Amino acid sequence: MAQSVDESGLTLPRARLLLVLAYFVIASAVLMALHVGLVPDVLVLVLVGGALVAGRPLLFVRDWGAFLLVVVLWQQTGPVAQWAGLPLHMSDLVQLDRWLAWPLLHGQLPQEWLQQHLYHPAILRRTVYHAGYWSGKVYHPAWWDHVTVRPVQWQWYDIMSAVLYGLHFPEPLVVGFAIWLRNRALFRRYAAAFLTLAGLAFIGYIVYPAVPPWMASYATFQGHAYGAFAPPLHKIFDDFNYYVQQQMLGHRYFSLLNVAYNRTAAMPSLHAAFPVLSAFYLRKSIGRWGWLMLVYAAAMWFAVVYMGEHWVSDVLVGCVCAVLAYVMVEGLSRVRLGQAFAMGRSYSSAEVEQT
Questions:
Q1: What are the residue boundaries of the structural domains of the chain, listed by start?
Q2: How far apart are CA 100 and CA 95, in angstroms?
């Protein structure tokens, strides 16, 4: 009989696990102090450091190498999707969102309704000149009228939405690292599902380039006429970065690679999809507690719609793609496991339990 393969986790002592956790906390603080953004090219180095602290650097390179390489290269696919040059879609997405929200909003777009009721933008300083005039024999001199400045009135959900949106790339990588520490075989399936999901999304960006809500709210953007919202939406994430990150905290984030992001990569929403995929695999890794990730996912769904980054239909299709990626990878894994049993290969209890 073939020798069983140990695919369990790293079985680190509790003290070493606490040291790994402390490392990630300190690394996050250092990156913030140095104004470095949490993008994949930066996170790769952070995860390598975590593997060193865990005492398994070579095992990390073996299990993560190809996965991280593809993740970093995937960032560069924006120009490829734009190169296809297929027509942009907007009006059909506007109508679909109106239809989806009709029972509650009766024809108003969800992004518009949420911002009108929840967002409190800044009132910019305006100066108005009033010319002098005669009233009978009395001359009234010219004067300047200054409108009072009111900053953005940030609410807790504004901060939550901006922070969650910024965790788009760190979240699935951190979840993957946690799974890797517990079960390497499960991590490999998680990595395969993650890449499958990214591939499905990339196909979507090529064949169905979608104008996101914030861009659709502009009358014109880069030579294209839009104007689907009146008044225009606020790009809350940009407001947060400017008023809070830059002006208040003095942070001006940069990354190691200059990534040309695809602005029409809205359908499907990976912001909505990644947490769903993470919830499925955390459930396999830690049991029922893994479903708590769906709370994070729901908060992300709210954030991307509220901030005008995605349509509701983007979110729904993103969730469907996450389910498809999970079903495809897990189905293939069960087929391979059945074939291996038929050939007489034995497995560890951890492998069978996590399948």
A1: 14-121+154-353
A2: 9
